[in-house]
Design brief:
Radius of gyration of chain A: 26 Å
Number of helices of chain A: 12
Shape of chain A: elongated
Distance between the termini of chain A: 79 Å
Helix content of chain A: 40-55%
Oligomer: homodimer
Largest interface: A-B, 58 and 59 residues
Number of strands of chain A: 12
DNA sequence: AATTTTCCCGCAAACGATTGCAGTAACTAT
DNA sequence: ATAGTTACTGCAATCGTTTGCGGGAAAATT
């Protein structure tokens, strides 16, 4: 389909002037006689001229665009961070291109390549589940393309990132469960190679250790965030000879599904089993019982990621910076057991 | 920050050949001696050459990109359709740029303009809540830029769209409530000027009419999908002298919040009030009671939207086509009242 | 040996803008 | 009247590719 777009040249010919004059007139540069300026404006209006961004970008070799890559658009956490990223970028005069990897390493590599070829000026990335080696990211650094990681990062990468203290957050959540009287604690985790999942498990372990509670490996199970996996994880926990009386789930996606599974088995929450989850999605409030969850600073996360990126883009400061934001445990019914005084 | 990218020219100079030869060699065109081809490949590899997509697009005046505009990335329905849109586009060799309007008309206009200036080859749009006149869309048609609307459309626009029969869907849901013994039916709707909301209300009315049930205007209330609005809508309904015994909500976002509000008031669902909602988000299963909801063909919707768009892009067929997809009522606990035989 | 064919490759224009520099006309100052 | 400004505008190169056309050398055909 041939879309007829008018160019600067057509305007120039129509008015019998040069393209440079038209260009300058349209952009409000000085040194243009008012009459010419008006004439140009008029004709541009009539022909509904729209500048070709591609040409513009090519000559200025600047796109004022940043690329954002997330595992899944569908996850409430990511779509929310995206909103704040876009907001912050827009304010700084940048637009964003959003891509998703569907947790696939190959797709991540592809998407990054595409964005780089399209000359985005920087990238904000949350790594895919399947990403276990980081050559593609290191290549970006070598090429001096600004990159910021958020949430799903890697310790191997010495690079700017904005994250939360997952270990501490999980520790606090577990501690809370212990203080509510839980003795046999379980943890429903994500994929085995996912750093943030492992960090949260670590925090879980730390809390057990501090309170001298035993750690049983079979009380920690891994899944892929899907409803099916998560419910299975919960069922398996129930089928153990000595089921847990407190569960930490490292994501609301897992938590909600697990809650569903437990309720299906007629287990009373929080009396039989208390629960704390991660992310504090709005739905936590809606469930019966409402779900205690660790709130992530979504707004800030997006804003800081953009800030870090812009700093790299504009100040050519390649010194990697890590911003660690605070989480907050929001206690609701699912963990509010009555605890006998002693 | 100056990112040093290698160009075709540098390769050419390094090898003492012309840029055209390099270009052809890299793209595997014929008429290139194997040795030159290899040499080019080698040097390109060494210098980590990445073609400049901007330049490419400019000369080919084709970007193989489509733009998608949705009101809010955060809505499960939209992010899900986006996934299937991206999938379908990718398969056809197109990439997608995703934008959100946050329900604002001005932003919609802006985003469209940007995308057009960036020379996307077509647009898939779900209109913003605040969009009440359609000059910006009509302009696209005048300029022969392929456009497809989905979900949030407008009757004023004679243009390709993929939608569902909202009237029929709401009718069936309401009929179901009536068949489960509801006599006083209410409807929690969205913004007043939102077509799909009004269509659903219309279907609601149609069912009342068919079954000779009275329609009270105060039983239909409008909100903006927010938790606060939706809960308020529900509370207002409860405060009526003669509260309803059946509620249709035109979106799960409203439905979940309403359910929460009703439960807060100690109302038994479905015994006191039965409920059916719209969209069949995965969470419907998780609630207590689980929520009956009308399932939208999300996958298909995305796929068909892309198909319609590609048809316009590639076949220059500007004949508007409307694809109406089937919904399905998924009955769960929230509407399963015991109904006495008679 | 002359002609044709095949194989490679380069020149230069094009895509649609921006921009440094130069040039002309009008206006001001001497 | 001449020199010096000032106000505008155009030329041409540039960004990094692609592509039609033409041409020379080698190989094949007569």
């Amino acid at each position: 389909m041939k879309t007829n777009t008018t160019t600067i040249k057509e305007i120039a010919i129509l008015l019998g002037i040069s393209t440079s004059t038209v260009s300058r007139a349209l952009r409000g540069l000085p040194d243009i006689k008012p009459e010419t300026r008006n004439a140009v404006a008029r004709v541009a209006q009539e022909l509904d001229y729209q500048p070709n961004q591609l040409a513009k970008n090519l000559v200025k070799s600047s796109t004022k665009t940043i690329g954002v890559i997330v595992p899944e658009l569908n996850f409430h956490f990511f779509s929310s961070v995206l909103i704040s990223i876009e907001e912050a970028a827009l304010q700084a005069g940048y637009s964003v291109i959003i891509c998703q990897t569907h947790e696939s390493y190959l797709r991540e590599v592809n998407q990054i390549e595409n964005l780089v070829n399209s000359r985005v000026e920087g990238l904000i990335i949350s790594l895919a589940r399947d990403t276990t080696h980081y050559g593609h990211i290191e290549k970006l650094i070598r090429k001096k393309i600004p990159v910021v990681l958020f949430d799903r990062h890697s310790e191997e990468l010495n690079i700017s990132k904005v994250i939360v203290d997952n270990i501490k957050a999980a520790f606090e959540a577990t501690e809370h469960l212990i203080q509510r009287g839980c003795k046999r604690l379980a943890c429903l985790a994500g994929p085995l190679n996912l750093l943030i999942s492992n960090e949260r498990v670590q925090g879980f372990k730390n809390a057990l250790e501090k309170y001298n509670l035993p750690f049983y490996p079979e009380y920690v199970s891994h899944g892929d965030f899907s409803k099916e996996h998560s419910m299975l994880q919960a069922f398996n926990l129930m089928n153990l000879p000595n089921p847990p009386d407190g569960i930490l789930t490292i994501s609301d996606r897992i938590g909600f599904a697990a809650l569903h599974a437990l309720k299906q088995r007629g287990i009373k929450i929080p009396e039989d089993i208390a629960m704390v989850s991660f992310n504090n999605e709005p739905f936590c409030n809606y469930f019966t019982p409402s779900v205690s969850s660790i709130s992530q600073p979504i707004q800030e996360m997006g804003k800081e990621a953009v800030n870090l990126l812009l700093k790299q883009i504009e100040n050519e400061s390649p010194i990697p910076e890590t911003i660690m934001l605070k989480t907050q445990l929001v206690v609701r019914e699912s963990s509010m057991r009555k605890v006998e005084e002693n």
